[in-house]
Amino acid sequence: MLLPLPQRRRDTEENILPLINIVFLLLIFFMVAGALHTRAPFEVEPPGTEHADGSNPDNHVLAISADGELALGGDTLERAALTARLREREGDTLLQVKADSGLPAAELTELLSDIRAAGIPRIRLLTVHRGE
């Protein structure tokens, strides 16, 4: 007659170690992924809108401050350098523009016409969603 094998008690540490490993891997992932986002060198407060659609984060963002400073991809640029850099971007058909709400509309309109003249056919103005 065969006797049953004694049941081995599992130590609780055996169950916790894989969980700790996963938490550390997630922590490292989010630290690396968070460092990939570039910020504008100055603060920009975009105007609000009543509806919102998602913006594509893969495209470059042109930030415009209230006093007319320009930044493309985190680099501060002069207006002439901006149009030169936009002409170099072959194949890009969309540029996202994040303009401060304090920027005069006439300056924004002039800049948008310069962007179109530089060969960017589509421009997306980014706004802040202010839902009710």
Summarize the structure.
This protein is an alpha/beta fold and 132 residues long. It is built from three helices and seven strands.
Task: Describe the fold and architecture.
With 132 residues, the protein is an alpha/beta fold. Helices cover 36% and strands 18% of the residues. It has helices at residues 12-35, 79-88, 105-117; strands at 48-49, 61-64, 70-72, 75-77, 94-99, 122-125, 128-129. Strand 5 (94-99), helix 3 (105-117) and strand 6 form a beta-alpha-beta unit. The protein is elongated. It is a single-pass membrane protein; Single-pass type II membrane protein. This is Biopolymer transporter ExbD. Belongs to the ExbD/TolR family. Pfam families: ExbD.
Low-pLDDT stretches are none
Report the β-strand fraction as a percent range: 15-25%
Q: Please work out how many helical segments DSSP would assign.
A: 3
Average pLDDT, all residues: 80
Please identify the structural class as seen in this structure.
alpha/beta
Helix content: 25-40%
Q: Kindly, what is the distance between the CA atoms of the first and last residues, rounded to a whole number of angstroms?
A: 77 Å
Number of strands: 7
Q: Strand order within the widest sheet?
A: 4-3-2-5-6
Order of helices and strands: HEEEEHEHEE
Largest sheet composition: 5 strands, mixed
Family: Belongs to the ExbD/TolR family.
Membrane topology: Single-pass membrane protein; Single-pass type II membrane protein
Transmembrane segments: 16-36
Protein name: Biopolymer transporter ExbD
